[in-house]
Design goal:
This protein has 88 residues and is an all-beta fold. Helices cover 0% and strands 60% of the residues. The chain has one domain: Jelly Rolls (Sandwich), CATH 2.60.120.
Length: 88
């Protein structure tokens, strides 16, 4: 966790090759990949990403990531409080 408030959460995430974050809905977010390669899912789309790529997810978008190699990315989430609220 790099920063957290009721309006914004910024996290630095590292995954080993083969690790993943399961698909889940969430607030609007951007993910900037700093190192490595991964496959990011956004709704039904699969996006191959490498260092330098940025993926933007709309509010409520279902997102997940699977590391192809060791990967590091920076995530910025708007309205992080909504992550703790059950889906409607």
């Amino acid at each position: 966790m790099l920063y957290e408030s009721s309006e914004l959460k910024v996290v630095l995430v590292g995954l080993r090759a083969g690790q993943s974050l399961p698909e889940h809905p969430g607030p609007a977010a951007s993910f900037h990949f700093l190192d490595g390669a991964a496959v990011m899912s956004v709704d039904s789309e699969r996006i191959e990403v490498t260092a330098g790529a940025t993926v933007v997810v709309p509010p409520g978008g279902v997102r997940g990531v699977r590391a192809v190699t060791d990967v590091v990315f920076l995530g910025s989430l708007a309205d992080p409080v909504s992550e703790d609220t059950p889906a409607r």
